[in-house]
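Give me structure tokens for this 191-residue protein.
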Amino acid sequence: MIISGIFARTKNGLIGVDNDIPWHISEDLKLFKDTTFGHAVAMGRKTWESLGSHPLPNRTNIVITRSDIEVPAGVAVVKSIFDAVKWCTDLNAEYPFTMVDELFYIGGANILKQCVDQKIIERWYITTIPVDMKVDTGTYFTYDPMSFYDGAALYVRNDVLSRINIPVKNNIVDHIDFEVFETPFLSEFVV
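Here you go.
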């Protein structure tokens, strides 16, 4: 199983405002959906609540929280980023036909920071919205895989270099950048 992180940000690292994404770029939403579709997604409680406490369809949904919360059937609740990995590993062992082949940590900033600090991410999927937005109530995540992980390299997927400039049609920007990074920590994390 591959352990991944995925997020979108502005050039200055803004990822959210008041538990919401501060832009609506359909191409970015499509990238997220296409990338995570059919896989497991793990998120913090605030991210879960920002989704209306509804699971993302066609994905295994995992909420990371120390609080007691009620979730719909089929959604897992775990207490840590490590428990999310263990939950997927146990699911794969018990039901091999379901096979979670990639686990995505999708936010929020606290969960993503824990993943960086614990070095459990093998692959990062990062969308950059090429603008600077300064918001007093904003949540910022300025992670740069090239500086945090010595040896992180652009990952080649299907023989296409994964630094892609995608044209968009909206009133904020004319393109977004989508990059995939692989870290040197492959197989270092053991459940």
